[in-house]
Specification:
Length: 250
């Protein structure tokens, strides 16, 4: 059975002190629940150290929202995958649409980042998704198919990655994709992975949905056979809403 994953993307929110106080309130809630969800936190880089201090003896994974394709050197302002690994990170988010659009990350750069993350034995969560314009002009499959092919171009089929389908028009807008729309994209991605890397790879890869996931829409989305969890932005910032998403019975 594929992992069912609830991942928080805090974006540029929460100081180290706020991160610790969130975890201290959140941990007892999820530790006493019998949910099968695997929980991850993608925190601002400046919060990674305190996150490992609180999370290291738990089942919860965590990591940076972005890493660079090189581990060290003259790359001012970037995050290193090898250092992330050294301080105990388990995962790294790669190719979020805000990185693609605001920081001009190309498919090629994202492919290099995925390669670096895997070389450091971190688990990449690879984001992809179409814009509103692309959906309206019927280009959804073309766009996410291209993003997927590029992101997996250096990935050996023995490796494990996670995908996050996040339609750009649903991120932070309150406009969630219907379960059917999300399922259509997820099953397309699964069939593309089958063609690119074979059925074993395709079947073991969890595909998360992201874009305005809230406690009141997560259960319906999770009923779809190819939705294997969520990447949650806004609703991951409050203990109450994120713990409800993590402890729902899927
Ligand atoms: P949202 O963000 O849940 O606030 O829509 C999701 C994301 O960007 O990962």
């Amino acid at each position: 059975m594929r992992d069912f994953i609830c991942a928080a993307n805090w974006k540029l929110n929460k100081s180290p002190r706020e991160a610790v106080s969130f975890f201290k309130e959140f941990l007892p809630i999820v530790e006493t629940s019998n949910s099968r969800s695997k929980i991850l936190f993608f925190v601002p880089a400046i919060d990674l150290w305190v996150s490992q201090e609180v999370l290291r003896d738990t089942e919860i994974g965590f990591g940076p929202q972005n890493i660079y394709s090189k581990n060290d050197g003259a790359f001012t302002g970037e995050n290193s995958a090898s250092v992330s690994k050294e301080i105990g990170c388990t995962h790294a988010l790669v190719g979020h649409s805000e990185r693609r659009s605001l920081f001009f990350e190309s498919d090629e750069l994202i492919a290099e980042k995925v390669k670096t993350v895997l070389e450091q034995n971190l688990h990449p969560v690879i984001c992809l998704g179409e814009s509103l314009e692309e959906r309206k002009t019927g280009k959804t499959n073309e766009v996410i198919g291209r993003q997927l092919k590029a992101a997996l171009s250096h990935v050996d089929s023995e490796k494990k990655v996670t995908l996050a389908y996040e339609p750009v028009w649903a991120i932070g807008t309150g406009e969630v994709a219907t379960p059917e729309m999300a399922e259509e994209a997820h099953s397309f991605l699964r069939s593309q992975m089958n063609d690119l890397k074979g059925s074993a790879f395709s079947e073991k890869t969890s595909i998360l949905y992201g874009g305005s996931v809230k406690p009141d829409n997560c259960e319906n989305l999770a009923k779809m056979p190819n939705i294997d969890g969520f990447l949650v932005g806004g609703a991951s910032l409050q203990v109450e809403s994120f713990s409800q998403i993590c402890t729902a019975q899927y």
